[in-house]
Design a protein that fits this description.
By secondary structure, this protein is mainly α. The protein has one domain (22-81). The protein is built from four helices and no strands. Helix 2 crosses helix 3 and helix 3 packs antiparallel against helix 4 (70-81).
Length: 83
């Protein structure tokens, strides 16, 4: 059922006028960089916490139109590690 819903075109693109513009190339970059930082710092989080960090970093990009600086990204990850 869920896979059938995800195959429906209405779930693939944001609704017209929703104000949400996805940049999937940037999302992939955020995921790759965040996972690399997790690995480099030997941080192991629950998948839900990892997803939350990635979401926060990506939302920052969507709001500001620019990547989060590395120091801020490190701080977000460190805070998530203490949860």
């Amino acid at each position: 059922m869920l896979l059938e819903e995800l195959a429906d075109p209405q779930y693939r693109e944001p609704a017209v006028g929703s104000g949400i513009a996805h940049d999937f190339d940037t999302l992939e970059e955020v995921i790759a960089k965040t996972c690399a930082l997790f690995k480099a710092k030997d941080i192991k989080l629950r998948p839900e916490a990892e997803a939350k960090v990635i979401r926060l970093i990506y939302e920052y990009y969507l709001r500001h139109g620019d990547a989060m600086d590395e120091a801020t990204m490190n701080n977000v990850i460190a805070l998530a590690a203490f949860r």
